[in-house]
Structures are given as structure tokens and as C-alpha cells.
Amino acid sequence: MELSTVRAWLRPRVRDTVKWGTLGLAAAQLAAATAVWGVDTLRKRREPPGGEFPRSAPAAVQVADSELTVYTYGEDLYEAMLAAIRGAEKYVFFETFIWKGDAVGEEFKRELVAAAERGVQVHAVFDSFANLVVPPAFKRLPDPVHTLRFPLWRPGLVTLNMRKSGRDHRKILVVDGTVGFVGGYNIGELYATQWRDTHVRVEGPAVWELENAFVDFWNAHRRPHHPELEDRGAQSWDSRIRALRNSPSSLLFPVRGAYITALDRARERFYTTQGYFIPDVEFLDAMLAAARRGVDVRVLIPEVSNHVLADWVARSFYERLLRGGVAIWLYQGAMVHAKTATADGRWTTIGTTNIDRMSMLGNFEINLEVHDPDLAGRMEEIFATDLTNARPLTLEEWQGRPFLARVAETLLHPLRWLF
Questions:
Q1: Rounded Cα distance, 278 and 132, in Å
Q2: In degrees rounded to 5, what are phi and psi of residue 24?
Q3: What is the distance between the alpha carbons of residues 190 and 99, in angstroms, rounded to a whole number?
Q4: What average pLDDT score do residues 60-89 get?
Q5: How far out from the chain centre does Cα 292 lie?
Q6: 3-class SS of residue 315
Q7: From edge to edge, which strands make up the β-sheet containing 179-183?
Q8: 8-state DSSP, 141
Q9: DSSP code per residue over 150-206
Q10: Which residue among 33, 107, 158, 161 is least packed, with the fewest CB closer than 10 Å?
Q11: CA 212 centroid distance within chain
Q12: Per residue in 27-39, pLDDT tens?
């Protein structure tokens, strides 16, 4: 048989094999995702979240002429944020990813409107996609409040253009340039008492870091009817406190770089708490390299998060991490949603950025990076408290998981690019 004849015979059969193989894989992934989601739905009905977890009381630390206070309980944080809004005299910059239309959300809305009505310049930003389920009436703020709804539809979603597809995942509050807040907390009743998250309050010159981040974002995304905000410039420059801003529209992702640099520099310990943990190749390599050097690398994540598919995609990394000496701790009984890390008792980051593709390379995010032993010590104390409500995952336990679980992890691993 001639070679050309063989090729002609093989070509359609290869195409069919590839086509049906691809369809079969997609069907298997869909089946695995549906099964995981279904089991999780039943679990949530049987075991509604209790939300009980150990708390770390707010405590202030002096850093570079500014005061930083870390919050790990939503009610404490909301009380401080609302007090700041009530005391506003000049302006309020408010930005959030999720803004629930419940009692907590209504209280924030009421105070923002009240501030605007007494002459305070109020600018509010929220992400339209994240608030699709929020009643439209709640999202209509009166004219005195300058409102920027980050658009639901972005053209990059079709063209796969990273510059025009990210969501606004940031959470910022700045009042009068004297006090600011940033961290993982969204606005809502659920987060007030049932989720374990981390936010930081900043008072002093370093508030400019958050204000500048808000002003730049507002001016870049405002519509013609929105007023332009003044770029005031920094009153001082101290590198011990910096706001790192992931900006997909500019292809800038400094938060990812800061994490990897901290891992590369770490000599003794690196602790991180994450709501969703799906590291990319370089991030994973940096963690394993640190562990090989003898660094005590610990990752604290929820045993069961509010996004079960993200949990299962994350599981596909566990064995390599455990074999490489990285300790995995699973938080119990509540959703831990924090995005924090500390290294060697000297470096800390607190913010909105998860260790996953969407946060590291897709969404608009902001983290504070702080070089200070007192704040790092405070974060290590909080981490130790959180470990009292977590259990270590051992390599032996992980290797003993059911065969079907291994199959599901393998099928769902390619979906890591969706998170």
C-alpha cells in the first residue's frame, strides 16, 4: 500500500479519535464536577455552617509613623469602618467586590448616603458581576453618591483579552485621607460572624497608599458623568508600607512577584492563610524550593470552602506539596477567607489577592506589603490561634484517600485555569 494511501486512510480516523476523545474527556469532567457539586449541596443542607471559630482581638502596631490594626472578626471590622464613615468631613472612597443587600449592607448604604447628604464627597465602586443576585433596588444609590458599577460585560471575555476581562475584586475604604481599610472582607451579614477573614486598618501617612490606589482606579474606569479625582501625591515615602496593585488592564501583577520574592528570601519560616489555594507552576516551585532549604512552609486553607470545585482543583497539588515538605493545615467548621502571609518574622502581606490564577493574573487586586517585625509578630500570633481550629493533613492520610477521589482530582485538575 502506498504511503499516500495510508495517510488518506489514517487521517479521518485520527481526527475522529481526537474529536471523540476530547468530547469524552469533557463529558467526564462535567460528570465529575456535577457529582462533586451535588455531594457538596447535600452536605450543606445536612450541616449548615456554624461559624464558630477562635478570635484574635484587634490590636494596633506602629509602623513607619502609621498605625496598623489587624481585624479577624467581621463585626469588629464593620464597627470600625462605619465609625470612620460617620466621622467623615471631606470625602469617602468606598470599594468592594460583594455588597449584600442585607441588614449589614443596608447599614453601610445608609451611612454612605448620610455622609453625602451632609456634604461629604462620597465615591462608591462595586463589581456588577459579583452582585448579580443583589436586588436592583439596593444597588441604586441616590445622586449625591458618585457610584461606579464596574461593568458586568467586558469585551475581553469573548476575545480572551486579559486586559479587558478581569473583575474588580478589591475591598478598600478611605476616609478624609486619614484612615483607610483593606483586606479580604466583603460586606454582608454572612461575613460579619460566620467567616474568618482578615482586614487591616491604617491610620497615618500610609493611608495614601490606599487612597492613591482608589483614585487611580476611579479615574481609569470612570464614565463621562463621573467627576475626576485629584491625584494629590504622597506626603512622605517610606518603603516599609506599600500598596501592591494587580492591574490586568496594564499587565502589572506585583502581588504575585512579592509572594515569590518572599519565598525566595525566606530562611526560617513562611506562613500563609488562603481562602482558595491553586498555585501556578512558578509559585509552587518557589514554595517547594523554600521547603528544601529547610524553611518551615505552612499553608492554612479551609477544609471545605464555599467553592467546592476550587477545593477539588486545589487537591491535585496536595501530594506534591506534602512530599516536598510543605505543611497543609485544614481550617475547621467555618470558611476561612483571608489572603495573608508572613515570612521570617519581618515581612507581611494582607489584602484581597488569593493564590490562584484569577487573583494573581486576572482580577484587579490590592495587598499591603509591610516590612516590620512587630506586625509580622502579630500575624504569627494570629496564625497560631487559627491553627488551634485546624488539623494537619499528613501524607499518609492523603495517600489513603479513595480511588474515586483520585480520579475526580485528575479530571478536574485541567480546570485550574478557571480559578
A1: 25
A2: -65, -40
A3: 11
A4: 97
A5: 27
A6: helix
A7: 59-63, 66-71, 199-203, 179-183, 172-175, 91-96, 121-127, 145-150
A8: -
A9: E-S--THHHHT-GGGT--B---EEEETTTEEEEES--BSHHHHHTEE--EEEEESTT
A10: 158
A11: 20
A12: 544 554 454 445 4
pLDDT value of position 29: 44
With beta carbons less than 8 A apart as the criterion, state whether 75 and 193 touch: yes
Residue 284 grid cell: 509552587
Are 341 and 312 in contact, with CB atoms under 8 Å apart? no
Please enumerate in sequence order all residues whose Cβ is within 8 A of that of 289, keeping only pairs 6 or more positions apart, or say none: 263, 264
Phi, psi of 174 (to 5 degrees): -130, 130
What is the C-alpha separation between 191 and 14, in angstroms, rounded? Answer: 52
Cα separation of 171 and 180, whole Å? Answer: 11
CA angle centred on 378, ends 266 and 364, rounded to 5°:
70
Cα within 13 Å of Cα(343), Cβ side: 21
Q: CA 126 → CA 30, 139, 167, 384, distances in Å?
A: 32, 9, 10, 34
pLDDT of 104 reads 98
What is the predicted pLDDT for the residue at 47?
Answer: 53
pLDDT over threshold 80, residue 41: no
Query: Residue 148 in 3-state DSSP?
Result: strand
- Residue 236 burial (10 A CB sphere; 0-12, 13-18, 19+): exposed
Residue 415 corresponds to which cell in the numbers above? 480546570
Q: What are phi and psi of 69, to 5 degrees?
A: -120, 125
Pairwise CA distance, residues 167 & 227, whole Å: 22
Burial class for 399, CB neighbours closer than 10 Å (0-12, 13-18, 19+): exposed
| Torsion on CA atoms 45, 46, 48, 52, rounded to nearest 10 | -170
Please give the grid coordinates belonging to residue 61. 502596631
Residues 278, 357: contact at Cβ < 8 Å?
Answer: yes
Q: Which of 370, 414, 402, 417 has the alpha carbon at shortest distance from 69?
A: 370
Q: Do residues 36 and 314 lie in contact, with contact meaning Cβ atoms separated by under 8 Å?
A: no
| Ramachandran bin of 170, using left for φ above 0, alpha for ψ from -120 to 50, beta for the remaining angles | beta
Contacts of 229 (CB under 8 A, 6+ apart): 123, 214, 215, 218, 219
CA distance 383 to 273: 8
**Beta strand segments in 306-346, E:** 327-331, 335-336, 339-343
